[in-house]
Amino acid sequence: MHKSLKTTLALSLALSLFPAASAAQVKGADGVSVNVTNPKRVVALNGTTVELIYRLGKQGTIVGTDVTGTYPANKIPSVGHWAQLPAEGIISLKPDLVIGTADNFATPKNTTLVQQLRAAGVKVLVLPATDMGGLDGVKTRLNLLSQVYGVPSAASGLSKSFDTTLAAVKANRPKVAPKVIFLYAHSPSDATIYGTEGGANELIELAGGKNIAPFKDTKALTAEALVAMNPDAIIMLNRGLDSVGGMEGVLKMPGVAQTNAGKNKRIYTVDNSIRWIGPRLPEFALQLAREWKKDFGR
């Protein structure tokens, strides 16, 4: 057999035995497409990005995250606070891909980060913001990540599991929506009411409540404003309730004791990550819906 023919046949056999690495061109939320081929060193910014990669079974590729990437429990090195991410720290991890979210990159101290990383030759995929879009937004980010890793069937299965939990949420909502506010507290004297934008609002609506904050963003807690709104229920982060001294402490906060929520001790806590809408949103909503259904009637 001619030598060149033998070489061609051998190469064809090798390719059949060892398929080419999956390659994809993934378009980010910033309009920039990123060419990826089996990423092995990924810096995953924002805890929801870490969670989604875990759910796709690709957690072994993550070599760095920020301070929010703590779930599931892991020992992934942190590059720092999500609102002031250091380009040098990320580059030092020698990533073949950085995956972050539009809302984190938009914070004042991160506005040049993507440009710095790309200028250094680092590929950056910008996912849609995590504070809008609800569960559909989670699915969009999940699908983009499935393209990165070439695992569309895994993403499809996860989306179906979200829908199954969502159906359970709808079946457990209270018939009459309680009036709700979300209170973000650092201490008894430092608390903010969240408005009708963001993950907290998505959780309230999904669980069957009515967010009665008359504004979109956030406003400092005042007794006058809270008493005027008179919520039936108040939601806080787990760490927020701890920071004010538990149930006894929150009832001493401005105006709380004068509201229906305070009088009936309808204070509910949720996971500290709820500001960023992630794959556990249906689970958090189901827990809250069940509590409200029990407390506010069936």
TrEMBL record:
<dbReference type="InterPro" id="IPR002491">
    <property type="entry name" value="ABC_transptr_periplasmic_BD"/>
</dbReference>
<dbReference type="Pfam" id="PF01497">
    <property type="entry name" value="Peripla_BP_2"/>
</dbReference>
<protein>
    <submittedName>
        <fullName>Hemin-binding periplasmic protein HmuT</fullName>
    </submittedName>
</protein>
<feature type="signal peptide">
    <location>
        <begin position="1"/>
        <end position="23"/>
    </location>
</feature>
<dbReference type="InterPro" id="IPR050902">
    <property type="entry name" value="ABC_Transporter_SBP"/>
</dbReference>
<feature type="domain" description="Fe/B12 periplasmic-binding">
    <location>
        <begin position="41"/>
        <end position="298"/>
    </location>
</feature>
<keyword id="KW-0732">Signal</keyword>
